[in-house]
Design a protein that fits this description.
By secondary structure, the chain is of the alpha+beta class. It contains two helices and eight strands. Bound molecules: cobalamin. It comes from Lates japonicus (Japanese lates).
Amino acid sequence: MALSTTPLLSVGFLLLLIQETLTNKGPASFPIRLTVESDLSNMTPESYSSSVVEGGVLLGALRRLQETQRDFKFTVKEDPDFGLLLESVNGVAGDESEQTYWEILSESSGEYSRLDVGIGCYKPAANEHIILRFSTWTQH
Ligand code: B12
């Protein structure tokens, strides 16, 4: 008796496992908007759409965008204290001697606020509009 129920139990377990795999959709994700602009040149601002998983950080949205859009790329530099610094966007890099950097802002109803943490820590909200603005730190 015990012998004949074992294969049945195994098949049942396998079916449960398959069902679990098929219905497990992972964490929900939501869209965010990104604009790349410059205070230092008259480039036309570029707009992009990306997505973030629930509770995920901005870095994830930038990576996803880089994987799907051929005209968006970025690099980061690791800081021992504060994590990841956004070093370059679309081939334009911040430069210590020129005092230039990529400032990161959030826009809502025409109001701009600077993020208080870097891309590796910031958790965007659904439909948030993030601005990557090439700027100088002498202006602030
Ligand atoms: C000066 C400064 C800057 C300058 C640094 C350039 C320079 N050479 O001076 C500039 C203007 C570039 C800058 C930018 C930003 N900064 Co700043 N910055 C500072 C500040 C006031 C002093 C740093 C310093 O000179 N330390 C003394 C030197 C000797 O030590 P250091 O280790 O070599 O310093 C380096 C790091 O601090 C690094 N750095 C500076 N800011 C940031 C931010 C991040 C996320 C990272 C990874 C590294 C980093 O640049 C410094 C020079 O190389 C600190 C506050 C503080 N009291 O530490 C905030 C601080 C480090 N910055 C902060 C933030 C949030 C930012 C921005 C994300 C703001 C924004 N929304 O755009 C951006 C970075 C954007 C990006 N591209 O990723 C936060 C970091 C908090 C966190 N937990 O992530 C801090 C702590 C201010 C705060 N909110 O309290 N910053």
